Amino acid sequence: MRHVQKENEIPIGVKLQLLRHLLTGTPPQSFLDNLTAAQMIAAHQFIWEKTLEIGIQLLGDKFSQSAVVKRIQSIEAYKIAAGCSEPQQRCETNACLDEHPECVHRKLKLQIENLCDFAAATLQLVKS
Amino acid sequence: MLRSVQRTAEIVVLGPSFALQKRLLTHLCNEVVLTRDNCAFGRTRISNELELYFYGLGESDKSKDFAWDLVADKILGFFLLFNWFDGASFQKAMETADELSRRFDAHGVIAGDLAENLVPVNEKLIGYGFSISERIYFSLWNSASKASSRALMRLLVDAVMTHTG
Question: What is the value of ipTM here, to two decimals?
Fold first, then answer.
């Protein structure tokens, strides 16, 4: 059976690349520029899940999801920096994807970088 | 008295080199042979009723001639091996993974071989299965370790059990 890739899905190869960045603690900046804003939503979801998995696997009971959340720039701070007057909820749910795809891309790229930083710090912490 | 029926389950092993495929097969199989066309084949008997067959394939163009369309629906799954520290090997694995997932819905495990170079990686992450699709796991793998190879096999069985039925 053949798999038809949907517009907002990311290929397995991209997921592998993202995972490699997470596991080696290297930032994926330029790589993310090749993804569409819709794909960035899927990439963000994937990176979020894998960051939690890495945290749980390495830190066990000491892992706290709130520590990850603290690492990510808040939606409120992002909106202020972007000079956006849309309701916060729209930003949280990426509701303005169609109107402002570049803004959604920029926000998610920042968050993915934050998550990669967290994973890198966790890898370093457990190693030392 | 019921007559025992022997069944086989087939697993395809893709990788950048025969040596790497052979390492996995050696750890998982009772018997490993090199075929005349330089492919690795291994088999292991689970019980009188079940035997696993492993077919090693390279990533050369020749391997693309392999009758994927015929076997994909009946294989138990695949292993896609690559060298974790080798960018070219990783790139090739990415392309192969994309091609496999585009064409088939096979269960599989993609394994990045650390080749005993374990220092840069936390050992808690070796053998852990990162789900990267409904049917495919990724894992870091130490090809020198039988335990690590068996962990890959457990992941493949887990992928099949989790996503079947």
Answer: 0.86
